[in-house]
Amino acid sequence: xxxxxxxxxxxxxxxxxxxxxxxxxxxxxxxxxxxxxxxxxxxxxxxxxxxxxxxxxxxxxxxxxxxxxxxxxxxxxxxxxxxxxxxxxxxxxxxxxxxxxxxxxxxxxxxxxxxxxxxxxxxxxxxxxxxxxxxxxxxxxxxxxxxxxxxxxxxxxxxxxxxxxxxxxxxxxxxxxxxxxxxxxxxxxxxxxxxxxxxxxxxxxxxxxxxxxxxxxxxxxxxxxxxxxxxxxxxxxxxxxxxxxxxxxxxxxxxxxxxxxxxxxxxxxxxxxxxxxxxxxxxxxxxxxxxxxxxxxxxxxxxxxxxxxxxxxxxxxxxxxxxxxxxxxxxxxxxxxxxxxxxxxxxxxxxxxxxxxxxxxxxxxxxxxxxxxxxxxxxxxxxxxxxxxxxxxxxxxxxxxxxxxxxxxxxxxxxx
Length: 416
Prior knowledge:
By secondary structure, the protein is α/β, with parallel strands linked by helices.
């Protein structure tokens, strides 16, 4: 018996000491770039980050040489829809009306793998868009290691004001599935928030403004008291609310109500962004979605003049930068192809952000805003969500297209 116990203890000791040493050219730790640094992983945690010359490691350490790369925290995507696919393949209406939740779940597993392979180890999914709680179950299959994919924070169906969402274009006698859950009135919104959280939503997404009829400009949707009630209900349950908002008044109501992030914000003014800064509310501009949709509608980027929509987007993004609003990396991926999350980073830089600040947004900043402890940085004791990209993305953001290594929770998923 004593011999058996000794063997078990020796075996456990071996498992505890099993280590992986990652040796890149440089390390971006979520805050700054460092030359000649290495990262040591033990189990699913980071055991050491720093100069290679200061590290002592055991003889059974697996060494992975990542020559020519920059090692950095796994990306944290701030606005995704894993259950959608690009609108130039199938329109949003047809995805909601003609693709069953089963088909969309299967597509979602493919999208999840592409997302992880692109270096995104955590994603905030902003609504199942007509597929109910399919995002909750996709999250579960990833957590249960049935399919590979990023960590997921999910919103479930999302919440819209009655009459203010689609699909639309049918006469009043036709009942069609909606892309979100429609509700009105303070008692009803409280009940809906509670139901969604009880069904597995990690947070609540609301639409503070939207088009009331097809082709019309966006207008505010929920009354201030309705937004206040939803935020209070979510906060009481230990959760929070994020808001789709693109008009000044919609943004103002969402800010006054206490949401944690504003999504899109196309019509934001300097006054609005200063208010967001004052309240500590993050801004997720979803630049890549607007860029993609404009091209779907015929804009030949690099050939045709820049459309007004893109010009306005650049202006609003610059105002947010000037106001020093915390910028959330999130491209609304699903509108464009999964696995091309880098497009948002490229546009953030193209629209005026420094590459290193864009990288901070996609790692440490998003981790803080999304309440993700032990993620977003390469730091001792943090979870081993680590990627390596070819080249130096702090000098050339296009390096984010070339992900050579992906580790999530200490497990290696991709190495080239």
